[in-house]
Amino acid sequence: MAPEMTDGSARLAATIGLLLLLSGLLFWETTAAARRLRDREDVRRRVTAALAEREPERAAALFRHARTFDAAYAACQEGRRLERQGHFAEAAESYRICKDADPELLAAHLAWAEAVLHSQGKAVYSDLRAHLLELLETRRGSSTDPETLQSIKDLTLDLEELLTADAPQEHLGTWTVEDLVEVLTRSHSRGTSRYEGPRVPLRLGFRPGGAALGAAAEEQLRDVATALRRGRLAKADLEIEGHTDGVEAPTEAERRALGLRRAGAVQDALVRFGIARGRLRITSLGSRYPLASNESLPGRDANRRVELLNLDEGTPVWRDVREGR
User: Fold this and answer.
1) Is the pLDDT of residue 156 over 60?
2) How do strand 199-202 and strand 238-243 relate by DSSP bridges?
3) pLDDT by residue (tens digit) across 184-221?
4) Distance (Å, rounded) from C-alpha 110 to C-alpha 274?
5) Is residue 215 part of a domain?
6) Same structural domain, 133 and 176
7) Which of 295, 285, 271 is nearest to 319 (CA)?
8) Looking at the predicted structure, is the pLDDT value of residue 319 above 60?
9) Which residues, listed in sequence order, are joined to residue 243 by a DSSP beta bridge?
């Protein structure tokens, strides 16, 4: 005859049983989640292949399988159909729906970007490049689709080259007081920057990752302070925009922080030279608006800069003046 269990033994046995049950459920859920993840990755590979497939029937078969897993992938198929018909704006909207439904599907991001480029052209170069840079930063080292990721990197570099293809060369030099006054009082013109102004790009010898001002930079800013006491500029408010190159910090958030330090350093210098701090607003635009390609050392040197914008004569809206050409 088996001995009766004590209350403590019974509770222990019940606890062990519950733990075993929970362990089994956890194992089952983990296994099921892993299976769903594998299935999702398989479907992503099929959609990626379908978007690149030239044979319509094979593409349709790949999309059909994907739709049985998730109906949202029908938007990618519709985007592909519209793109083949030359309806790029409508295709871009379908691709947007698809990429929003599955943000990890890099092929949808790439197809959307290419369709947007076809439909809107140079008007979207800056914004599109910024979107793709952010995408690359969030997917660094974690993508299961390296080939598409490389295509996105290539497109980002292509956009940068398009942005900087005919950038003016005046930004390479220093500025006299007279030139500063003349450019900063041009109503609604770009000065010598590529972008809407009136604005002046100042290359102040920033080292990669740094915001320190050397002797030459201090001398240039002393001339800026003199200009800001002349004529209409004597009462003008200015925005000081900090900029970086595309590689001196690993993320755009860090590049924006660096650009803000550069703008702050210029603001402090101008205050030391007698300009009221209340006239000087600072901001940072990170690497979003390059003057030159980040693929070369001279290009990166040009992009590490601040730009001065006369807020009394212009508006702080960044638009490439070449968009209307």
Assistant:
1) yes
2) unpaired
3) 887 655 555 556 667 889 999 999 999 999 999 999 99
4) 50
5) yes
6) no
7) 285
8) no
9) 286
User: Domain boundary residue among 164, 190, 216?
Assistant: 164
Nearest CA-CA partner of 240 in 194, 272, 201, 189? 201
Residues 107 and 229 in one domain: no
- How many Cα atoms occupy the beta-carbon half-sphere of 237 within 13 Å? 11
Read off the CATH number of the domain in which 156 is found: 1.25.40
Q: Which two tokens stand for residue 138?
A: 């969030």
Question: Domain containing 222 — which CATH number?
Answer: 3.30.1330.60
Kindly report the backbone phi and psi dihedral angles of residue 46, in degrees, each rounded to the nearest multiple of 5, phi listed first: -65, -45
Question: Both 229 and 157 in a single domain?
Answer: no
Q: What is the average per-residue pLDDT within 142-161? A: 82
Q: Is residue 142 part of a domain?
A: yes
User: What is the model's pTM?
Assistant: 0.63
CA distance 277 to 37: 55
Q: What residue numbers bound the domain in which 81 lies?
A: 17-164
pLDDT tens-digit series, residues 106-128? 899 999 999 998 888 888 888 89
**152 and 255 part of one domain:** no
Query: Which residue type sits at 26?
Result: L
Q: How many domains does the chain have?
A: 2
